[in-house]
Each structure stands twice: as structure tokens, then as C-alpha cells.
Amino acid sequence: MTITLTKGQRVSLDKVAPGLTEVFVGLGWDVKAMDTGFDFDLDASVFLLGSNEKLLSDNHFIFYNNLTSPDSNKSVQHTGDNLTGAGDGDDEVIKINLRSCPAEVQKIIITVTIHEAAERHQNFGQVQNAFVRVVNAQTSQEVVRYDLVEDYSIETALVMAEIYRKDGEWRLNAVGSGYQGGLKALLDRYS
């Protein structure tokens, strides 16, 4: 059974899916019917943070040009860039092995940005049906889902969710925070 969250809600992954060790985080979206003269290219990225809420290193920023985390187990893997977002279902996927994720990773920030948003005059107000979901990789069962319903008419970067450690367990927070300035705004926040 899927737990559906609203903005700001938190849930213990251990309580809603006991024994959960491997997940994939699916992100999806649709572009509203409008013509900006350019295709929309949304990009999922992951920031692996330490206890100070900052990136552990540049290699702990996982995106289409750095697909795997630097630990020997490659515990976080981006499956690749979807340039159009066309079709139903997940547009981009991040695989996370919660069991082998190094202890220094205290928080996993899941974000989406619009590639070249300023140049293309695009923002998240032109996107609809955006969601993030956590799926048990072993059973393919959706565990948690968060559908964004807010209007982000000036934002070009979104923090969708964060998976974090608390009291020895993994939890998920449905963040839904928008930023102006695209990927650079997020890099400034977490570096």
C-alpha cells in the first residue's frame, strides 16, 4: 500500500516498509501545452550531505555527468538523463541502496532543475503532474508518493524530497521547496 504525502509531511521508511534496503526514486512530470520555442529538459540530481547539511565532496553530487556515488558500493546511482520527459511514468530514476550507503551520508536531497531555464524562458509554472515516488527495488511496490500541486511560476529548481537518517532509521520528508536560479542556486545552498 502506498503512503501519499503532502508538502512537509515526514514518514519513517522503516515503519511503512519494514526491511526496506534498496529503493529506486522515480521522478516524473509533464509539460503544459504551451510553446516557449524550446523543448523542456528537466534534470534530476541528488546531493549527498554530511551532518553539516553540506555536500561531502564534489563527487557526492549525483547527476547526468556523475552517475554514481564515490563509495566502493556505488550506493547511489542515477540511471541517466531523459531529455524530453515524454510519456507516462518515471522520467528519471535514482537507485539507492540504503543498507550500503556510507554512514557519513546523513541526508540524500532529491532535486529537479530545468536545463537552461533562463535562456529558454522556462519555469516550473509551465510543468504539471510532477511527482516523486519511492519504490521497493526488490518487490517493485511503491512505498511512498508525493505529488506536487503548488504553482512554482518563477522557480527553476525544486527540492522534491529528502531521505535522511534519524534515530538509526531512514526517513523521508516531502519538501517541495522551489528556488530561482536553477541548479546554481542548489549548488550554492549545499556546497
TrEMBL record:
Residues annotated as domain TerD: 1-190
Extract the Pfam families matched here: TerD
Q: Which CDD domains match?
A: TerD_like (cd06974)
Q: What family is this protein classified in?
A: Belongs to the CAPAB/TerDEXZ family.
According to UniProt, the name of this protein is TerD family protein
